[in-house]
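Notebook entry, structure prediction.
Reason for the run: the old model in the group folder had no record of what sequence produced it. Starting over properly, with the input documented here first.
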Amino acid sequence: CTRFDGPPRVVALGFQLAEGRLIGPVDLFADPGFDRARQIALEIADYIRSHGPFEPHRLPLEEMEYTTLPEILEKLKERFIKVESPEEAKNIAAQV
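New structure, fully documented this time:
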């Protein structure tokens, strides 16, 4: 599984047909030749996540009314801070 997203999006399974028998699966991505590609993919995923949440990682807001999200937001509303500029956001983040 990936760190946040659950099972991998892409798999490379190898099978072999020998003497009428199907042998496998073998994880072709387990080869050390894919280590660098995995590392780059993890760095890209971290960069994308640094931009904050984005759909479709969850239900659209109009469908969230059937979850506990509205109650949670209501409980936390006094902790939200209105931010007017990116600089102000950086200053607030630096204080946390």
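Summary: The helical segments are 35-49, 69-76, 86-95.
The old model has been moved to the deprecated folder.
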